[in-house]
Each structure stands twice: as C-alpha cells, then as structure tokens.
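TODO from last week: model Glycosyl transferase family 1 domain-containing protein.
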Amino acid sequence: MSEHEGFGVPLLEAMKMGVPVLAYRSSAIPETMDGAGVLVTEKNYAYIGTLLYELLNDRPIYEALVQKQFDRIEKLKNIQTEQILLQAIQNMQTGERKQSIQMQGPFETSYSLAAVNRKLIEALDDLNKIDASIYCTEGPGDYEPNRKDLEDKPHAKVLWKKSKDITYPDITIRNMYPPRVHDVCGGLNFQFFGWEESVIPQQYIRNFNRYLNGIGTMSDYVTEKLIECGLHIPVKTMGCGVELPAQYDTIEPYKTKSRKNIKFLHISSAFPRKGVDILLKAFYEAFTAADDVCLVLKTFPNPHNNIEDLLDKLSKQYPNPPEIEWINCDIPTSELYSLYKMADCYVHTARGEGFGLPVAEAMLAKVPVIVSANSGLADFCNEQTALLVDYKLVPADTHIDTGDSIQVSMWAEPDIHNLITLLKSFASGMDKKKLNQMTEKAYELISSKFTWKKSAQRWLDFINEVEHNQIKPKVAMVTTWNSKCGIAEYSKMEVESSCNSVEYQIYPNYGVDLLMQDESFVENRLWHSAFEGNMNMLADELIRSDSTIVHFQFNFGFFELQDLGRTIKKLSDHKTVMITFHKTDDSMVGDRKVSLRSIVKQLNLCSALIVHQEKDRLYLEQIGIKKDILYIISHGQIVYPEISSSFRKKELLIKSSLVIGSYGFYLPHKGIKEVIQAVAELKNIYSDILYMPVCALHDSCESKEYLKECLREVEQLAIQKHVKFITDFLENDESMRYLQACDIMTMPYKPSMESASGAVRFCLAALRPTITTKQQIFEELKDCTFQIEKTDKDEIVRAVNKVLNEDYRRQLIEKTKKNVYDHSWHSTAKSFYQLYRSFQMGEN
C-alpha cells in the first residue's frame, strides 16, 4: 500500500515466486506491474479485504493472475538493460544521436488505419530529423506481421525491423483499435486518434489523461469532441496525408460489367455509420433500370456488412431496380485506385468520419463528390469543393458504451430527399463549368494542405511543444472549493482542465458545507471571510509550501482588504503572487464600502493581476496598477456534446413544445420573476409553454426569500402548470440534462458589479439561443446572445418571439458554438499554464 515507490522490486520478487500481488496504484507501481497483479485506486480496506477473500477462494482467477505475473517477469527478462545503458552513454558522448520516434500499431495491411500508420512513420523518416521505427501491435496486444504483406512495402519493412532493437523509444505514437495506452513505453507518449460520433467513451478519456502526454487528431471535429468529453492533456489537429500512387496517371480505369455511361462510386466498410443504407435507398428511389446510371459499391466482408440483405429487400420493394455493381472483396492497390479513374461521381453518405480518406482521395483524383459534410469531413468538404447533402444530428445507433448517462452519442443523419435531388441533378447533366471549378478547388485544397510531409512536420512541432512544456509549475491556489459558490466552480474547472500540466495545492476557506470529501491535493482550510480577517496562518503555510506560485481567486466577500494587502507583502519576498479578480468595482460588504484603491501599493507587488474583461483592466490601470502586470484571461467556457431538446424532453417526460430555461442561483438580480411574468403573457401564444429555472437555492436568507417571492408570483398569475422550479444544487451533468431540454435560455440580469458570469456560460454550453440584458457582465458575449435593454417582461416577450424565428435562431446557435469552442476551459487553462510557466522559468 506504499504511496512512493521508485520501482518496486519486492513486488517483482513476489511475482517471480508465484505469489499474487495486490498493490496501491501510486508512483511507479503501475509501470512496474504493467497490467499484472491487482491494482486498487483507494485505500478502502473493507473493499481490499473482499478482493483478497475472492482471490484466495476462486482458483481459476488465482491461477490466471499468477500466470499473468509470470508473463510480466518474462517480458522484463527480455529487456537488455546493459545494452540500453551502454547505448545511452555512447549517445551522450557523441552528441550525434537523433531522437527516436516509434509508431505503434498495425501497418502492413490495406486496412485504412494500418495505411495511415505506415504513411505517417514513412513521412517522419523521410524528414531525416529523427530515428523512426514502427512496432507491430493491435488493441488486444502485440503480433508478428505476415511476411507476404511486407513484400510490397520495403520502406515500412526496414522501419519494422529497426523496432526490434528499440525497447524504450524517446517518443511513441500509437494508433490502434480499440486504443490501448496503459502500457505505453516511451519517454513521451502520444496517440493518433480518429473518432466518428459525438461522444468518446469515458474509459478512453480517463486512460488518455492518465497515460499519455498528448493526442494528435485526424480532424478538427475529433479535437473538439475530445475536449468536450473531458480530455485535459494537450491535443492538436494533425490531419492526414492524401496521396495517389506515383503511377496513377498510367492506371487504366476499372473494368466494370456495367455498360451504363454514368457511374457513381462508393468505397467503405459498410459499417452502419457509413450510411450505405441511405445511399442505396436514395439510389433505388432516384433511378430505375431504364436510367443510364450504375452505382459501383466497393466494400469488404465483415460482421457489420449487411449489403446483401439491403439489396434483397430493395429489389423486392422496387420491381424495376437501377443497376448496382457490388465488389465485396479485397482487390490489389492498383485496382482500388482504378475505381476513381472509372468514376464519374463519388458519393459518400457517412453519418460520421474521423477524417474521410476515400472522399479526399476522390477529390485528389479530380472526381466530383456528393457528400454530407459532417464530422471530420467538414475540414475539406464545403460548398466550394463538393455537392453537399443536408443532415441533422440524431442519437447514434452505436455499439459503443459511453459509460455516462448524460453523454448521448450523436451522429449526422443525411437528408435522403436532398440526396435524391443531387443524384438526379448530376445524372441529368449539371453545369460542366461549375462542376469543373468545384473539382479544381477540391484538388487544390487536398494537394496543398493534406500531404503526409506536412502532417509529419506538424507532428514534430507538436511533440517539441509538449516536450518543452514538461516542467510542471507548482501552484498554491487560495480559493473557495467544494462548496456552493460560483468561484469554487470556476476554480474547479481551471484545475480539472490543467491538472496534467500544473501541480496544484488548494487552500480553501473553512466554515462551509462541503459537497463531497476534499481531494488529496486540498490542504488545510485556514481562512474564513472578509469579516474575520487574520490571514497570518494562511500566509505562513503558503511560505512553507513547495509551491513557487501563489494564486488568489478574489471577490470582495473573501478577504478583508488590509489583511490581503499585508499577506501579499509578506508573500512577495518568497513567492510569485497572482490574483484573479472576479469583481473590481467598489462594493459594499455588509454596511461598509470597500475599494481596491486602498491596497494599490500592495497589489503592485504582485507578478500578475488577471481580469476577465477590458473594462476591468482599464479600471485597475486608472486606479494606479502597473500596466505590465495586468492580464486579460476570459472566463472559461464549459463544453458539452450537442443534444437536441426533443431528445432530452422525451427522456425527462416533458411534453411542452416550448421550454424556456434559466440557470444559476435564486437571487433578486437574476430576473427570474420577470421571466415568470413574461411566461404569463407568452402562454396566450404558446399554449403549452413551460418555464424551467434550473437555479439552486443559495444558503442566504436573500435567496430563500426571493424563491418565495417567485412562487407567490406564479400563484397570483395562475400559471402553476407553466412553471417547473428546480431548486437543488445539482451536479453539472444533471443540470445540463435539464438545460438541454430547453429551447431558449433567459438570463435577464439586473445591474451587477460582477466581472463575469459562470452561469451564462453554462447556458451557452447547452447550445440554445440565450437572451441576456445589456449589462457589463455580458458585454463580451454580445455577439452570440440576444441582448435586451432592461429586465422587463415586455422586452423578454419580444426577445422570445425574435429568437424563435428559425433563420435567426440558427445564426445565433452557430455564433454560440463558435464562442463555446473558442473560449473553452481547455483554451483558458492553457493561457493560465503559459502564465504559470513563464514565471516558473523566470525563477529557475
């Protein structure tokens, strides 16, 4: 149960002697055991006792565990430690050694994932900047490639042979399915990742965060989804290379059996997400045997390929079916590319793609493309490069267990009627000039941006960036934590989004009701509120800590200003001091007016003062704060996968066609009562309207009284069936479930002195049109919200009617999406990390 082990030799000795090992997951233990034995993540001794009892009384499990431990010992025996050490010494002496990068995954077959691995490592090797190799492994484990598969891949064969002499590469890049990362063996470890649906299983995300140093993705879509699903480590879009064989110009067109003049082509696995069912249905609907068209369908046999059943059903449904030529086998590479030479139009109706290689290859071959530009395809499919099929997001018919009830995986369902129109239009003869312009633009985009050489260089740049940032700044954060407080939530988001890059110690306040047990990195609770003052114990503890940076989260109710000033002065001789201001204007604390003007001298001793908006920066500058210590870092934005309101309504048994929501706490300045008044009028137009404020009851008397006031208003207006109050302090995921059931968000605040709102960002994360007032707190969101002049029921009524206009609603949601992704906590945490690191490196 040790918490600090550099290696753990006694564990290996026990494993060698055939004794089952149960250990606490800490320090080097997981790496030493490498999947053998049993690891526990918490010291719950009742649970550990149960594990021991089961282990000793279940002989098959006991024997399997011991055998796995023997396998681990054999693997260790094969490590040439002396050779590795001698090579390291030699490299240090000569100074000529190149950094070793090893691709790990399948590479030798025609499987697209294997081809991507092969092309990437060959491109990295061609750059001649690193020592490249490729190791043969798959999701279930290592394997030996079929030698015949290597005969026509001489470059990859050489790189594979090199891997046998490299036990611990400097860098590993893995790409396999399912992703396996718990046993990565590089100095730095990366994943090359593609995904097709909106939700990535939490098991994958947890393992990525735990075992990897970074992820390179195949498209912007995959990058967005990783961040949405909780990835905290560095992630960047690498893209894929797209190329045709060197001899493509000499390849003859594929010889089809069909004599039809117009040939549509589709190449895929025929997995459900590939949308072949939609394509076939549309093709049968659009054409008959009399039409001069043929669909050439290239798939390969697999358990998910049900083309035969689909064709059989459609042939019975349509008595005079169009011509289909189905190729359901592996064909030589040259024949595969000859399909593009044969095609007049490539059609791709996938419900989701990590990238969409066949589409990009068709564009490079100058074949016009009909495609639904969703997911990874959106990186290169647009109105200038392709004929676009409309789509809508629907719950995915997925075999993946998301492991989280809030995470409903979505994919893009192509509009079959729109597809039929495009197929008919192409077959009847489109404008040749426009078609040629489109294929030329597609070719130019693919040939200029999507090359393996550029992708390889992006990988090297990304690896260097991550390597450069390996030193973890040590930060002591003084903040509210694990309590009903907006700033506690803000701090939690920052810490969760950067904990893989920053080593945090949290120093929270005492005298609050905890939401859960504090985490291990939470230190003593040594301060209370502005009314009590006396931060001496806190200051002494911070000076003794091994953190080099002290970061205060500031609101006027937290600290007595003179006491804070003395603490800053005391700390500044020993630590780098930073403060994030969530409010800057003069305020009232109880019956006292307080102002930052009173501690300007002490604030100027800080290394960084951070605000959320330009207004706050200007104010601090105006009262005498030095310009060079002022920074603007916008409030982070929480991100969730997009879910339709109709889906959430069905799930929550909400029957109203129009649901309006609010979020935050029940407080007088939030404008909840005015929304209730607006609903009383709106119900005359929208008879089943429902207002659902997802607002927690604050501990203060003011909050409890305001909720009573709102309840009385509902009763007086006799609209009880049109208002549903949610008053519990919910987990974020549960709150989001309710907000995603809404069609419109309303945040009509009255004047507020706060610098930023975390609540409105939660509303934006639901990706619904959001109505706010024109308050300074919402100034930075004016481009992605509909803002009204004041907190007034008539203004709210007009705003609701405005945002229900379909075109305006769509525009507002698109702007909201952009804001959400541009200001995600992933981006905000990166800004804090860069600031921390700059001070850390300066001290070093």
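Done. DSSP finds 30 helices and 31 strands in the chain.
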